[in-house]
Design brief:
heterodimer, A: mainly alpha, Rna Polymerase Sigma Factor, Chain: A, 2 domains, B: mainly alpha, 65% helix, flat
Protein backbone atom coordinates (compact mmCIF):
# COMPACT_ATOMS: atom_id res chain seq x y z
CA UNK A 1 0.00 0.00 0.00
CA UNK A 2 1.23 3.50 -0.89
CA UNK A 3 0.69 5.00 2.56
CA UNK A 4 3.06 2.46 4.10
CA UNK A 5 5.98 3.76 2.05
CA UNK A 6 8.65 5.77 3.82
CA UNK A 7 9.58 9.24 2.60
CA UNK A 8 12.88 7.94 1.22
CA UNK A 9 11.18 5.18 -0.74
CA UNK A 10 8.69 7.65 -2.19
CA UNK A 11 11.48 10.03 -3.19
CA UNK A 12 13.40 7.22 -4.90
CA UNK A 13 10.29 6.34 -6.92
CA UNK A 14 9.68 9.97 -7.86
CA UNK A 15 13.27 10.30 -9.04
CA UNK A 16 12.70 7.23 -11.20
CA UNK A 17 9.79 9.06 -12.86
CA UNK A 18 6.73 8.17 -10.79
CA UNK A 19 5.36 11.68 -10.46
CA UNK A 20 1.92 10.69 -9.14
CA UNK A 21 3.36 9.27 -5.94
CA UNK A 22 4.39 12.78 -4.88
CA UNK A 23 0.74 13.20 -3.83
CA UNK A 24 1.47 11.00 -0.81
CA UNK A 25 4.17 13.37 0.38
CA UNK A 26 1.85 16.32 -0.17
CA UNK A 27 -0.90 14.67 1.85
CA UNK A 28 1.54 13.63 4.54
CA UNK A 29 3.02 17.10 5.07
CA UNK A 30 0.42 19.58 3.84
CA UNK A 31 -0.91 20.34 7.32
CA UNK A 32 2.55 20.86 8.79
CA UNK A 33 3.58 23.10 5.92
CA UNK A 34 0.31 25.01 5.87
CA UNK A 35 0.36 25.58 9.64
CA UNK A 36 3.94 26.85 9.54
CA UNK A 37 3.23 29.16 6.62
CA UNK A 38 -0.06 30.42 8.01
CA UNK A 39 1.64 31.36 11.27
CA UNK A 40 4.21 33.23 9.23
CA UNK A 41 1.92 35.06 6.84
CA UNK A 42 -1.24 35.86 8.74
CA UNK A 43 -3.45 35.40 5.69
CA UNK A 44 -5.09 32.12 4.71
CA UNK A 45 -5.10 32.74 0.96
CA UNK A 46 -1.44 33.76 0.96
CA UNK A 47 -0.59 30.78 3.14
CA UNK A 48 -2.28 28.39 0.74
CA UNK A 49 -0.51 29.90 -2.28
CA UNK A 50 2.89 29.85 -0.58
CA UNK A 51 2.37 26.28 0.65
CA UNK A 52 1.55 25.22 -2.90
CA UNK A 53 4.70 26.92 -4.19
CA UNK A 54 6.73 25.20 -1.48
CA UNK A 55 5.60 21.76 -2.63
CA UNK A 56 6.31 22.65 -6.27
CA UNK A 57 9.77 23.92 -5.29
CA UNK A 58 10.40 20.81 -3.20
CA UNK A 59 9.33 18.59 -6.09
CA UNK A 60 11.59 20.37 -8.57
CA UNK A 61 14.62 20.22 -6.31
CA UNK A 62 13.99 16.74 -4.97
CA UNK A 63 17.20 15.50 -6.58
CA UNK A 64 19.09 17.82 -4.21
CA UNK A 65 17.71 16.01 -1.17
CA UNK A 66 20.73 13.96 -0.13
CA UNK A 67 19.01 11.98 2.59
CA UNK A 68 21.42 13.09 5.32
CA UNK A 69 18.47 14.51 7.26
CA UNK A 70 14.79 13.70 7.54
CA UNK A 71 12.72 14.75 4.53
CA UNK A 72 10.58 16.87 6.85
CA UNK A 73 13.66 18.78 8.08
CA UNK A 74 14.66 19.47 4.47
CA UNK A 75 11.09 20.47 3.57
CA UNK A 76 10.85 22.86 6.53
CA UNK A 77 14.06 24.52 5.34
CA UNK A 78 12.28 25.18 2.05
CA UNK A 79 9.29 26.47 4.05
CA UNK A 80 11.48 28.86 6.00
CA UNK A 81 13.28 30.31 2.98
CA UNK A 82 10.01 30.68 1.08
CA UNK A 83 8.34 32.45 3.99
CA UNK A 84 11.28 34.79 4.48
CA UNK A 85 11.22 35.62 0.75
CA UNK A 86 7.49 36.28 1.00
CA UNK A 87 7.95 38.56 4.01
CA UNK A 88 10.75 40.44 2.25
CA UNK A 89 8.51 40.94 -0.74
CA UNK A 90 5.87 42.33 1.55
CA UNK A 91 8.52 44.61 3.00
CA UNK A 92 8.02 43.36 6.52
CA UNK A 93 10.87 43.60 8.93
CA UNK A 94 12.42 40.17 9.03
CA UNK A 95 15.86 41.25 10.21
CA UNK A 96 14.72 41.87 13.72
CA UNK A 97 13.43 38.42 14.26
CA UNK A 98 12.10 38.94 17.78
CA UNK A 99 9.95 41.90 16.81
CA UNK A 100 6.34 41.47 17.45
CA UNK A 101 3.82 41.88 14.69
CA UNK A 102 2.36 45.24 14.05
CA UNK A 103 0.02 46.88 16.47
CA UNK A 104 -2.59 47.12 13.75
CA UNK A 105 -2.71 43.37 13.27
CA UNK A 106 -3.01 42.95 17.01
CA UNK A 107 -5.84 45.43 17.21
CA UNK A 108 -7.69 43.68 14.41
CA UNK A 109 -7.32 40.40 16.18
CA UNK A 110 -8.43 41.83 19.49
CA UNK A 111 -11.56 43.23 17.94
CA UNK A 112 -12.17 39.83 16.37
CA UNK A 113 -11.84 38.15 19.74
CA UNK A 114 -14.24 40.60 21.34
CA UNK A 115 -16.79 39.99 18.60
CA UNK A 116 -16.62 36.31 19.35
CA UNK A 117 -16.50 36.73 23.09
CA UNK A 118 -19.92 35.16 23.63
CA UNK A 119 -18.86 32.13 21.68
CA UNK A 120 -16.66 29.89 23.80
CA UNK A 121 -13.44 29.48 21.92
CA UNK A 122 -12.12 26.01 21.63
CA UNK A 123 -8.81 25.22 23.28
CA UNK A 124 -7.12 24.62 19.92
CA UNK A 125 -8.37 27.80 18.35
CA UNK A 126 -7.17 29.78 21.34
CA UNK A 127 -3.67 28.28 21.22
CA UNK A 128 -3.46 28.81 17.47
CA UNK A 129 -4.57 32.42 17.78
CA UNK A 130 -2.09 33.05 20.57
CA UNK A 131 0.75 31.52 18.55
CA UNK A 132 -0.14 33.78 15.63
CA UNK A 133 0.29 36.79 17.91
CA UNK A 134 3.96 35.91 18.32
CA UNK A 135 6.76 36.94 15.99
CA UNK A 136 7.16 34.69 12.91
CA UNK A 137 10.30 33.13 14.37
CA UNK A 138 8.75 32.39 17.75
CA UNK A 139 5.69 30.82 16.18
CA UNK A 140 7.82 28.75 13.81
CA UNK A 141 10.04 27.55 16.63
CA UNK A 142 7.06 26.45 18.71
CA UNK A 143 5.35 24.78 15.76
CA UNK A 144 8.47 22.89 14.73
CA UNK A 145 9.12 21.70 18.28
CA UNK A 146 5.59 20.69 19.20
CA UNK A 147 4.01 19.77 15.88
CA UNK A 148 6.82 19.32 13.37
CA UNK A 149 8.40 16.40 15.22
CA UNK A 150 11.80 18.07 15.03
CA UNK A 151 14.59 17.82 17.59
CA UNK A 152 16.60 20.83 18.75
CA UNK A 153 19.39 19.83 16.34
CA UNK A 154 16.98 19.62 13.43
CA UNK A 155 15.33 22.93 14.30
CA UNK A 156 18.83 24.41 14.48
CA UNK A 157 19.54 23.11 11.00
CA UNK A 158 16.30 24.56 9.65
CA UNK A 159 16.76 27.95 11.27
CA UNK A 160 20.53 28.16 10.97
CA UNK A 161 21.08 28.23 14.74
CA UNK A 162 23.04 26.26 17.31
CA UNK A 163 20.93 23.72 19.25
CA UNK A 164 21.63 25.56 22.51
CA UNK A 165 20.44 28.83 21.00
CA UNK A 166 17.31 27.03 19.81
CA UNK A 167 16.69 25.83 23.37
CA UNK A 168 17.04 29.32 24.83
CA UNK A 169 14.85 30.83 22.11
CA UNK A 170 12.26 28.14 22.68
CA UNK A 171 12.12 28.96 26.41
CA UNK A 172 11.64 32.63 25.60
CA UNK A 173 9.05 31.95 22.90
CA UNK A 174 6.97 29.85 25.27
CA UNK A 175 7.20 32.48 27.98
CA UNK A 176 6.03 35.10 25.52
CA UNK A 177 3.21 32.81 24.43
CA UNK A 178 2.17 32.37 28.05
CA UNK A 179 2.10 36.15 28.46
CA UNK A 180 0.01 36.55 25.30
CA UNK A 181 -2.47 33.95 26.46
CA UNK A 182 -2.76 35.57 29.87
CA UNK A 183 -3.26 38.98 28.26
CA UNK A 184 -5.70 38.08 25.49
CA UNK A 185 -7.35 34.88 26.69
CA UNK A 186 -7.51 35.26 30.43
CA UNK A 187 -11.20 34.27 30.47
CA UNK A 188 -10.60 31.10 28.45
CA UNK A 189 -7.60 30.14 30.57
CA UNK A 190 -9.63 30.56 33.74
CA UNK A 191 -12.31 28.33 32.23
CA UNK A 192 -9.68 25.75 31.33
CA UNK A 193 -8.33 25.74 34.87
CA UNK A 194 -11.87 25.27 36.19
CA UNK A 195 -12.48 22.26 33.88
CA UNK B 1 23.61 21.72 38.99
CA UNK B 2 23.21 25.21 37.67
CA UNK B 3 21.54 27.23 40.38
CA UNK B 4 22.29 30.52 38.62
CA UNK B 5 19.97 29.61 35.76
CA UNK B 6 16.54 31.24 36.09
CA UNK B 7 13.82 29.11 37.59
CA UNK B 8 11.71 29.14 34.41
CA UNK B 9 14.58 27.91 32.23
CA UNK B 10 15.33 25.09 34.64
CA UNK B 11 11.69 24.12 34.77
CA UNK B 12 11.37 24.15 30.98
CA UNK B 13 14.44 21.90 30.74
CA UNK B 14 12.82 19.61 33.29
CA UNK B 15 9.51 19.52 31.41
CA UNK B 16 11.22 18.93 28.05
CA UNK B 17 13.44 16.23 29.52
CA UNK B 18 16.67 18.05 28.66
CA UNK B 19 18.22 18.06 32.14
CA UNK B 20 20.64 15.59 33.69
CA UNK B 21 19.45 13.02 36.28
CA UNK B 22 21.06 15.04 39.11
CA UNK B 23 19.40 18.25 38.00
CA UNK B 24 16.15 16.36 37.55
CA UNK B 25 16.08 15.08 41.11
CA UNK B 26 17.08 18.53 42.41
CA UNK B 27 14.17 20.12 40.58
CA UNK B 28 11.79 17.41 41.77
CA UNK B 29 12.78 18.22 45.35
CA UNK B 30 12.30 21.95 44.74
CA UNK B 31 8.86 21.35 43.24
CA UNK B 32 7.88 19.16 46.16
CA UNK B 33 9.13 21.52 48.86
CA UNK B 34 8.94 25.03 47.48
CA UNK B 35 5.54 26.62 46.86
CA UNK B 36 6.88 29.16 44.36
CA UNK B 37 8.46 26.41 42.28
CA UNK B 38 5.30 24.36 42.54
CA UNK B 39 3.15 27.20 41.18
CA UNK B 40 5.53 28.02 38.36
CA UNK B 41 5.80 24.36 37.41
CA UNK B 42 2.01 24.05 37.24
CA UNK B 43 1.84 27.17 35.03
CA UNK B 44 4.51 26.02 32.62
CA UNK B 45 3.19 22.49 32.48
CA UNK B 46 -0.23 23.86 31.55
CA UNK B 47 1.26 25.85 28.64
CA UNK B 48 3.26 22.79 27.58
CA UNK B 49 0.16 20.59 27.58
CA UNK B 50 -1.85 23.16 25.63
CA UNK B 51 0.88 23.29 22.99
CA UNK B 52 1.19 19.53 22.89
CA UNK B 53 -2.55 19.14 22.35
CA UNK B 54 -2.87 21.96 19.82
CA UNK B 55 -3.97 20.97 16.34
CA UNK B 56 -2.47 21.57 12.95
CA UNK B 57 -4.34 23.73 10.49
CA UNK B 58 -5.60 22.22 7.27
CA UNK B 59 -5.47 23.83 3.84
CA UNK B 60 -8.43 23.64 1.43
CA UNK B 61 -9.72 20.28 0.19
CA UNK B 62 -8.33 20.92 -3.27
CA UNK B 63 -4.81 21.52 -2.04
CA UNK B 64 -3.23 18.21 -3.09
CA UNK B 65 -5.01 18.34 -6.43
CA UNK B 66 -3.76 21.89 -7.05
CA UNK B 67 -0.19 20.91 -6.24
CA UNK B 68 -0.34 17.84 -8.48
CA UNK B 69 -1.78 19.89 -11.36
CA UNK B 70 1.00 22.40 -10.90
CA UNK B 71 3.84 19.87 -10.79
CA UNK B 72 2.48 18.09 -13.87
CA UNK B 73 4.02 20.97 -15.84
CA UNK B 74 7.47 20.37 -14.38
CA UNK B 75 10.16 17.74 -14.11
CA UNK B 76 12.49 17.12 -11.22
CA UNK B 77 15.52 19.32 -11.88
CA UNK B 78 18.89 17.55 -11.99
CA UNK B 79 20.84 17.64 -8.73
CA UNK B 80 22.91 20.78 -8.38
CA UNK B 81 26.13 18.80 -8.02
CA UNK B 82 25.51 17.12 -11.38
CA UNK B 83 25.68 20.33 -13.40
CA UNK B 84 28.33 22.18 -11.43
CA UNK B 85 31.56 21.31 -13.18
CA UNK B 86 34.27 20.79 -10.61
CA UNK B 87 36.92 21.82 -13.16
CA UNK B 88 35.38 25.28 -13.36
CA UNK B 89 35.46 25.63 -9.58
CA UNK B 90 39.08 24.44 -9.58
CA UNK B 91 39.87 26.86 -12.44
CA UNK B 92 38.41 29.82 -10.51
CA UNK B 93 40.34 28.73 -7.42
CA UNK B 94 43.57 28.40 -9.42
CA UNK B 95 43.01 31.85 -10.95
CA UNK B 96 42.70 33.51 -7.55
CA UNK B 97 45.65 31.57 -6.14
CA UNK B 98 47.79 32.63 -9.10
CA UNK B 99 46.72 36.24 -8.59
CA UNK B 100 47.63 36.07 -4.90
CA UNK B 101 50.95 34.38 -5.64
CA UNK B 102 51.72 37.01 -8.32
CA UNK B 103 50.91 39.80 -5.89
CA UNK B 104 53.09 38.18 -3.24
CA UNK B 105 56.03 37.84 -5.67
CA UNK B 106 55.56 41.43 -6.80
CA UNK B 107 55.62 42.72 -3.21
CA UNK B 108 58.74 40.66 -2.46
CA UNK B 109 60.41 42.04 -5.56
CA UNK B 110 59.86 45.58 -4.25
CA UNK B 111 61.93 44.89 -1.13
CA UNK B 112 65.51 46.07 -1.08
CA UNK B 113 67.29 43.23 0.63
CA UNK B 114 70.66 43.90 2.27
CA UNK B 115 73.03 41.73 4.30
CA UNK B 116 74.12 42.76 7.79
CA UNK B 117 77.86 43.10 8.47
CA UNK B 118 77.63 43.75 12.18
CA UNK B 119 77.40 40.10 13.14
CA UNK B 120 80.24 37.67 12.83
CA UNK B 121 78.25 34.54 13.63
CA UNK B 122 77.15 34.07 10.04
CA UNK B 123 75.12 35.70 7.35
CA UNK B 124 71.99 37.44 8.48
CA UNK B 125 69.27 39.24 6.65
CA UNK B 126 68.03 42.66 7.61
CA UNK B 127 64.31 42.82 7.11
CA UNK B 128 63.18 45.59 4.83
CA UNK B 129 61.98 48.71 6.51
CA UNK B 130 58.99 50.66 5.41
CA UNK B 131 61.31 53.47 4.33
CA UNK B 132 63.13 51.52 1.65
CA UNK B 133 59.97 50.08 0.09
CA UNK B 134 58.98 53.39 -1.40
CA UNK B 135 55.44 52.85 -0.20
CA UNK B 136 55.17 56.41 1.00
CA UNK B 137 55.21 57.55 -2.58
CA UNK B 138 51.88 55.93 -3.28
CA UNK B 139 48.84 58.05 -2.60
CA UNK B 140 46.48 55.34 -1.38
CA UNK B 141 43.62 57.65 -0.57
CA UNK B 142 43.66 59.06 -4.06
CA UNK B 143 44.07 55.66 -5.71
CA UNK B 144 41.38 53.72 -3.92
CA UNK B 145 38.86 56.45 -3.26
CA UNK B 146 38.69 57.43 -6.87
CA UNK B 147 35.22 56.80 -8.28
CA UNK B 148 36.78 56.00 -11.63
CA UNK B 149 38.96 53.23 -10.19
CA UNK B 150 36.00 51.67 -8.36
CA UNK B 151 33.83 51.92 -11.47
CA UNK B 152 36.59 50.37 -13.55
CA UNK B 153 36.99 47.48 -11.09
CA UNK B 154 33.24 46.87 -11.08
CA UNK B 155 33.13 46.84 -14.88
CA UNK B 156 36.00 44.35 -14.97
CA UNK B 157 34.24 42.05 -12.50
CA UNK B 158 30.92 42.26 -14.37
CA UNK B 159 32.66 41.58 -17.69
CA UNK B 160 34.45 38.64 -16.14
CA UNK B 161 31.16 37.14 -15.00
CA UNK B 162 29.60 37.78 -18.41
CA UNK B 163 32.46 35.97 -20.11
CA UNK B 164 32.15 33.07 -17.71
CA UNK B 165 28.40 32.93 -18.32
CA UNK B 166 28.92 32.96 -22.09
CA UNK B 167 31.45 30.16 -21.80
CA UNK B 168 29.12 28.05 -19.67
CA UNK B 169 26.20 28.71 -22.01
CA UNK B 170 28.33 27.63 -24.96
CA UNK B 171 29.31 24.43 -23.17
CA UNK B 172 25.68 23.74 -22.32
CA UNK B 173 24.58 24.22 -25.93
CA UNK B 174 27.35 21.94 -27.16
CA UNK B 175 26.42 19.16 -24.79
CA UNK B 176 22.73 19.58 -25.70
CA UNK B 177 23.60 19.25 -29.38
CA UNK B 178 25.68 16.14 -28.74
CA UNK B 179 22.92 14.46 -26.77
Amino acid sequence: MHTELTDTEIIKRILKGDQAIFAILVQRYQQYVFTLVHRFTDNREDAEEISQDIFVKAYRSLADFRGDSKFSTWLYTVVRTSCITFLRKKKLDTTSIDNERTALQLENRESGFKANAIEQKSRHAMVNEAIRLLSPDDSQLITLFYKGEQSLDEIGRIMGLEPNTVKVKLHRARNRLKEKMEKHFSYEIKELHND
Amino acid sequence: MNTQQPMEDRLWDYIDGFCSPTERSAIETLIAENREWQQKYAELLHTHQLLNNSELEAPSMRFTKNVMEEIARYHVAPATKSYINKNIIRGIGAFFLTMLAGLFVYVLAQFKWSGSSSSTSGPSLRLPSVDNLGLEKINYAKTFNSTWVIAFMLIVVVMGWMLLDMYLQQKKNQSAKQS
